[in-house]
Amino acid sequence: MELTFVSQNSNKLKEFQYLLNIKDLQVSRIRTDEIQSDNLEEIVRMKIKAAKELLPNTPFFVEHSGVEIDGWNQLPGGLTGVFLEKVGPAGICKMLEAFEDHDRHASAISMIGFYHNGSTKIFKGQTFGRIADHPRSSLDQEWLFDKIFIPDDAQNDETYSEMGFIRKCQISMRKKAVDEFSRFLQKHTDLDFFPKLKLDSEVIDTLRNQIRRDELPIAFQGLQSALKGSWEQKHLLTIEADFNRLSRDTTNGTITAEHRTIRHNNIVLSLLGLINRVA
Known about the structure:
single chain, Maf protein, alpha/beta, 2 domains, 11 helices, flat
């Protein structure tokens, strides 16, 4: 059984291929007319309603993204595309010039709708941040709001565009929605979209022992090799990024011993959970 993404957006397809780790993800470019609404979930459900008439026996998903700005009472939301088309990223920044800093706070939201066997499931990813003073990127092929959205956990106050494709994918709202979507798919045995990976028992024992001895850099290196090209590698990259941030915070002295222990233990538990899944 193959999973199909219903979209005419090639950039979204590229991102979902990467996030789901399905290189041959099927795409249907049927047109699903979007209603004009600030409600993202309402738009997603209408997309599914239109697509299921043409794909009644195909498991498929759709997606819609938007940004909600605090100073605009959570607008534009589902109308983000309309705002971008009419005034562009620079225009939105201009319109916010008269607002206080706290009114520039915003959240980027991705809503995924999945349809299979007559049932619809909705998955939401949300990242908090703020709107930049002006667009910051020289890239052309991207979601235009990426030029002006600065996530709270960005390094050096970067917009999504300045991060580049890989780094953005590691922390984006779409990544969070895909994580929820992927967990759902993994739990349902009839939805076998992902390659199954099982590691040799000796490899598993070696990795577990390295973690118990707190040899995390060595364990990361071994896992990178063992999981290369698999769906699980995406999760490993996220865990390793957390470990690298913890190492930097420890070196810079910007974290207490108590918080370091908590974050370290969470990383260890995440690694062991990942290993257990491929054991």
